[in-house]
Amino acid sequence: MIGSSMEASELEQRIAAFPRWHYPFTFANGVATPIPHRAMVNRQEQRRRYFFERLLELTGGSLKGRRVLDMGCNAGYFSLLAIEAGADYVLGVDGQQAYVEQAQLVFEAKGIDPTRYRFEQGDVLEQELGTDFDLVLCLGVMDRLAKPVELFERIAGAGAELVVIDTEVSRARLPLFEVSTLYDTSDVMGYPLVLIPSREALSELAAQLGFKTVALALNITDFTGMSDYHRERRLAFICSKGPSLEGVPAQPPAPSVPWWLRKPKALLSS
Predict the structure, then answer these.
(1) Using DSSP, how many helices (H) and how many strands (E) does the chain show?
(2) Helices 77-84, 97-110: inter-axial angle, 10-degree rounding
(3) Does residue 69 sit within a domain?
(4) Which CA distances in Å does 198 have to 20, 91, 138, 179, 211?
(5) Residue at 18 is within a domain
(6) Which of 27, 55, 131, 134 could form a disulfide with 31 if both were Cys (CB 3.0 to 4.6 A apart)?
(7) Domain range holding 92?
(8) Would 4 be classed as within a structural domain?
(9) This prediction's pTM
(10) What digits encode the pLDDT tens for the residues 185-239?
(11) Domain holding 125: CATH number?
(12) Furthest-apart CA pair in the chain: how many Å?
């Protein structure tokens, strides 16, 4: 809700000051962030259905009482979903200052109590994160850095019993990390050469740190803007040290594709 401290005209001006928005937000009086392609609007709605709804099914429909760490928060889309689902507090961290400012604007315009959130610019591998979180969202981060083991150590160190990971994956059947060079390096964390985990590698890495893992079955209703998911080159995972993952729908393994048969792909921003 737009409070008396921010009229629609002011919000429109502040939204327009950013050259690009990756996530769709709608505010009071019809004010919305400009998303030029319907595919990107559909992408975020489908991602919400795909892994965030599954998370809420696992937690009884609410995040009440939980503290959430959102790694790579961008404009705070999933941070906001966590707050709206009842989370007590969200810390969002992103490497880009512009995204942090977008998230702060979104939460201000939505009228979220400032004591329930904080957004910080920083490297998730170096930032002081704390150890008192119940849930970690790691969405579009693991496939944009060269240190997946260190990243998972940071996730485990945050103290959470539940972790949601959304990442590009190698289609190899072995527990390995595939070397890849990003086409778009604007959001890369460190080196442009990154390590893409296979499903088995991610599960084994999680197990080393005490988590059980499920690769979530794709429950996507419209693959517009979702070609990476459609080709099963991107998946979401839930990792747990607490709630049982028994009964969580799992994605069947995809057939392994030799690297020389893979076509070049353009990565969508997460």
Answers:
(1) 8, 9
(2) 30
(3) yes
(4) 32, 28, 16, 11, 17
(5) no
(6) 27
(7) 38-261
(8) no
(9) 0.90
(10) 566 566 678 999 999 999 999 999 999 999 999 999 999 999 999 999 999 999 9
(11) 3.40.50.150
(12) 59
